[in-house]
Specification:
The complex is a heterodimer of chains A (about 400) and B (about 290).
Chain A (H helix, E strand, L loop, with lengths): L3 E2 L10 H7 L1 H4 L10 H21 L6 E4 L2 H15 L5 E5 L4 H11 L4 E5 L9 H7 L4 E7 L11 H10 L3 E5 L18 E5 L10 E5 L25 H39 L3 E3 L10 E6 L4 H10 L2 E2 L1 E2 L12 H5 L4 H4 L2 E5 L6 H21 L1 H9 L1
Parallel strand pairs in A: 1-11, 3-4, 3-5, 5-6, 6-7
Antiparallel strand pairs in A: 2-8, 7-8, 9-10, 10-13, 12-13
Helix pairs in contact in A: 1-8, 3-8, 4-5, 8-12, 9-12, 12-13
Chain B lengths: L5 H8 L12 E7 L4 E9 L6 E9 L2 H14 L4 H5 L3 H7 L8 H19 L21 E3 L4 E2 H10 L5 H8 L9 H25 L2 H22 L2 E9 L2 E8 L7 H15 L5 E4 L3
Parallel strand pairs in B: 7-8
Antiparallel strand pairs in B: 1-2, 2-3, 4-5, 6-7
Helix pairs in contact in B: 1-2, 2-5, 4-5, 5-7, 6-8, 9-10
Classes of the chains: A alpha/beta (about 400), B alpha+beta (about 290).
Amino acid sequence: MKEIYLDNNATTKVDERVFEEMRPYFCELYGNPSSMHFFGGQVQKKVDEARSRVAALLGALPDEIVFTACGTESDNAAIRSALEVFPEKRHIITSRIEHPAVLTQCRNLTKRGYRVTELNVDSEGRLDLEELKRAIDNDTALVTLMYANNETGVIFPIEEAAKIAKEHGALFHTDAVQAVGKIPLNMAESSIDMLSLSGHKLHAPKGIGVLYVRRGTPFRPLLVGGHQERGRRAGTENTASLIALGKACELAHVHMEEERVRVREMRDRLQRELTALIPNTRINGGGADRLPNTLSIAMEFVEGEGILLLLSEKGICASSGSACTSGSLEPSHVLRAMGVPFTCAHGSIRFSLSRFTTEEEIDTVIRELPPIIKRLRDMSPFGREFLAKQ
Amino acid sequence: MWDYTDKVKEHFLNPRNVGEIVDADAVGEVGSLACGDALKLFLKLDESKERIVDAKFQTFGCGSAIASSSALTEMVKGKTLEEALKITNQEIADFLGGLPEEKMHCSVMGQEALEVAIAKYRGVEAPVHGHDHDHDHVEGGGQLVCKCFGLTDVFLKKVIQSNKLTTAEQVTHFTKAGGACGGCIPKIKELISEVLGEEKKAAQEKPVKLTNMRKMQLIQEVLENEVRPQLWADGGDLELIDIDGATVQVAFRKACAGCASSGYTAKFVEQKLRELVSNDIVVQEVQG
């Protein structure tokens, strides 16, 4: 069965051009870029090129790019660094809907005597900057907020938040794993101090990430050892993967306009037709500024796992904010923070598109999903009560 | 992705007995929208009101909740109410070729709905159920332990005991208790110790409590229910001749009579009786 892959916020297909770019760096050009001989030196040149390509996508300088092993490492490194830079400060500000890579780290720090403020979001998943202004003080070492949410695609006003942090002498970090490659970023005209990105979310392989660290921002490394990455991240470079990431960033740059226009149109059509065909739906974050590729749609009286399993029978890959799919017993912390009613939270499905998504694939989902929802509602005691009232 | 058995997948994709029975004799409803799963079970009885002739269900929940409901309705059909009440959540899971441990609470929900339906039909107080529509209110006594999912100590102890659970994590997998805020996990650990403590105590007290009359009764029950069916399977049988204190005299019949390994068979009978009745029992083979 050919897959219809609409789970690109989870991971993406490696672009074949990216794969071709990295292929020689396993069996042929396997030298260590730190070596003094020609064989390592030629790899060093490609590492430099990759660094420049990543920097170009972000509007950054090449020496502001630190390669890491994943988005989670970048997030951990940024938070740890900020606390070491300001040993006298004991306060961190984040939000309730961060990715666990940030949230778990922050919550663990409360056990070590740090104060952590988790900012709330409204019913559309939006941040209230006034709450940030009230929470921040001279004790705040770091403000860390995600650029765009992985479940709803809702975009936070990151530049405004970064300015507020700067005014109060706190460092500002953003987990931009979902935003990079989908919407334009320009570090040259930004107040962001540190930014995390992950290769496998933008058609590069898994196991490679970046932490952007602005020139002049004090930084303490998480991994210490060799001199790699100018002493900011020890460990021999994952050369093949970072070369792949460089190529992926170059392609993301080229395709950005397409992702923003063509992908958005497909997402909007999917949203429009599904809400017209399926009664009692709700778009999570539909009233907010969102990533162009993400649709989180809640369907009342049904449970997400059943929807995903039946979609999967049709070859359609999506994900859900429901409890049952995650091994957790509660609906996602993001939907709960938004106050999405329980009737909807359990039946929330996320479709996340990519530049490889086709109109035909969208047609298939529009055709297959409504009967699946009807079937599960017919089976559900609540759905029947509801349908009887109609 | 969950590692569901083919049977779970098959019952999820083609659930048996979905729907309602308008003139049902018994209806059991557990769970709620807030909990994330709910099951409404309908039972139709025969004219003598003894045997279940039809069963249907409506379920809101994940794939394994739907499969467990489908399995349950297949299992109860044709059973008397007494037989149906003996179905355990483990048997529902076994019917499906097993469930991932994190999903065992789906089988517990099925067993619970069955109990509630039969209790309501008989007009007795419904057993204290775990899933409660209104979390502030507990029916049938018991103390609320897990506030997130509305679960009482009576219900949790029952599940701990019948499934022989030993860790708080297992209790979460089987009942959801402690799976949300986690505030009740210390209390769950206490309940596990209580159940283990009670079982240990019961085991120690077993020989002391037995009167001679009770011991003889128990020996007869064990021979009838545990021993003879196994002998029948091999074409054999036995007869109880006499009980004198701790000495039990039996005579082997059919294939067992004169069988070369009757010594082993006597040891098997002795082992069963020691395990289930009293540690000091001695089995003697006699001709009779």
